[in-house]
């Protein structure tokens, strides 16, 4: 039945990581295919087809029982673009969330959200639609993670931090309490963020300083 089917957007390493998260959640058997903009005929990942976007959209165009979709592309603009394409075509989204998370203690968890293994959320956290929290992150109380934002492995986010939409947080980043990270900002790996970060800037270092004003 199509309603049980899952589609992963992406065919690269993030998609592979997501496959393994779903395997641990005992849901990998429901994955119908991976999908990307273009795909060579016969391409496979983990034995499953990697199909091009138009093929999948066409296949389910008149179906009332479309598979559920999740984004797993490392490039935030590409991930967002393909998610939006599937949303416009009437597809819904599913979450892939490690069982370590106490969902009932959180304020809001959106759709199309990934929270990978060994990540912890304390209380009152909001994770907006299509955000990704990669492995081994610690997210403290009252944090907001914006739409399409991606948090790389091993980040530590302190209480009352607001991360706006489409932010990239590199591996091992630390953010101290009550910081706001502006939309589209890019936090380089290993940074310690001690001041608010303006939108669309790149910051790096300990303490983090602005390295680029537009990305
Ligand atoms: C931010 C990043 C993408 C580099 O971006 P970039 O736009 O190519 O930046 P550049 O290499 O031009 O570097 C710009 C400046 O930032 C500095 N810089 C870049 N990354 C840095 C880092 N992680 N820590 C400290 N300084 C860094 C560079 O030394 C350079 O400084 P300078 O202008 O004083 O010489 C990369 O360094 C990074 O941290 N990526 C994170 C990747 C990651 O965590 N991936 C996880 C995927 S699961």
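^ Assign residues to that structure.
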């Amino acid at each position: 039945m199509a309603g049980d089917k899952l589609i992963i957007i992406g065919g690269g390493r993030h998609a592979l990581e997501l496959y393994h998260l779903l395997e641990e959640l005992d849901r990998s058997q429901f994955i119908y295919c991976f999908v990307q903009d273009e795909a060579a005929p016969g391409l496979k990942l983990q034995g499953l087809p990697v199909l091009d976007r138009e093929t999948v959209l066409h296949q389910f165009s008149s179906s009332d029982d479309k598979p559920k979709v999740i984004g797993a592309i490392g490039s935030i603009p590409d991930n967002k673009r393909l998610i939006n394409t599937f949303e416009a075509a009437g597809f819904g989204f599913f979450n892939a969330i490690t069982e370590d998370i106490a969902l009932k203690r959180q304020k809001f968890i959106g759709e199309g959200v990934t929270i990978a293994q060994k990540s912890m959320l304390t209380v009152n956290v909001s994770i907006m639609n299509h955000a990704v929290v990669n492995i081994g992150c610690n997210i403290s109380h009252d944090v907001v993670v914006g739409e399409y934002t991606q948090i790389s492995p091993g980040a530590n986010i302190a209480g009352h931090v607001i991360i706006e939409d489409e932010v990239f947080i590199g591996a091992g980043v630390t953010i101290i309490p009550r910081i706001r990270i502006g939309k589209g900002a890019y936090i380089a790996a290993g940074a310690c963020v001690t001041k608010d970060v303006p939108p669309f800037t790149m910051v790096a270092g300990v303490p983090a300083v602005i390295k680029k004003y537009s990305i």
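The pocket of coenzyme A is lined by residues 134, 152-153, 170-171, 186, 188-190, 202, 204-205, 211-212 (CB under 6 Å).
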